[in-house]
From TrEMBL:
It holds the Pfam family Acetyltransf_1. Residues 4-180 form the N-acetyltransferase domain. The keyword Acyltransferase applies. Keywords: Acyltransferase, Transferase. InterPro entries: Acyl_CoA_acyltransferase, Bact_Acetyltransf, GNAT_dom. PANTHER family: ACETYLTRANSFERASE, AMINOALKYLPHOSPHONATE N-ACETYLTRANSFERASE-RELATED-RELATED. This is GNAT family N-acetyltransferase.
């Protein structure tokens, strides 16, 4: 029987986090994001960014967590990154969010390891840490073309808060909606 667990990311996890992110984006978002943008992503550069986020986060409340599948071997299968909401969590022309709001910047499980509880474990571990940090609400942006993420977060009680934005990716506007939940 396979089991899983979550722990804080370590610098040596950065390469695998980048591989998972790139693989997942190229699989799950191939119809959402322009192919030319996905093709230009550099895994080594992404690993360097993840290593920096792990080694020198902007605050102690910024965290990267990793999920593992344990079967015959142990595999890193997903990750979550979050911290206090900053300007990246805002819709256009929106005033800053309250100081007690957490923002999910990434929550991905490699598709081949999906539907085994890894996303739920990552989200639950994140919520536990947000509560320890006295955060009261959390927000996350989801692509319009990503019903799986919307359904996953919706099943955990997240709802649209009315905020929308569009990311400019290779001169293509990619619409997003923000979800929120009370902690």
């Amino acid at each position: 029987m396979a089991t899983g667990y979550v722990r804080p990311a370590r610098p040596e996890d950065a390469g695998e986090i980048a591989r998972i992110q790139l693989s997942t984006w190229r699989t799950a978002y191939r119809r959402v994001l322009p192919a030319r943008a996905l093709d230009r992503l550099d895994e080594a550069w992404m690993a360097d960014q993840w290593r920096a986020a792990i080694e020198a986060p902007p605050s102690p409340r910024h965290r990267v967590l990793v999920a593992f599948e344990q079967a015959e071997s142990t595999y890193l299968v997903g990750f979550a990154a979050s911290g206090p909401a900053d300007e990246q969590a805002l819709a256009p022309d929106e005033p800053p969010l309250a100081a007690d709001v957490a923002a999910v910047t990434d929550l991905l499980v490699e598709p081949r390891w999906g539907r085994r509880g890894h996303g739920s474990r990552l989200l639950a571990a994140s919520v536990d840490l947000w509560r320890e940090d006295a955060l009261a609400t959390a927000v996350a942006w989801v692509y319009d073309g990503d019903p799986a993420s919307r359904k996953f977060l919706g099943s955990a009680g997240w709802e649209p808060d009315g905020a929308t934005r569009a990311l400019d990716v290779d001169d293509q506007l990619i619409p997003q909606h923000r979800l929120h939940t009370s902690l």
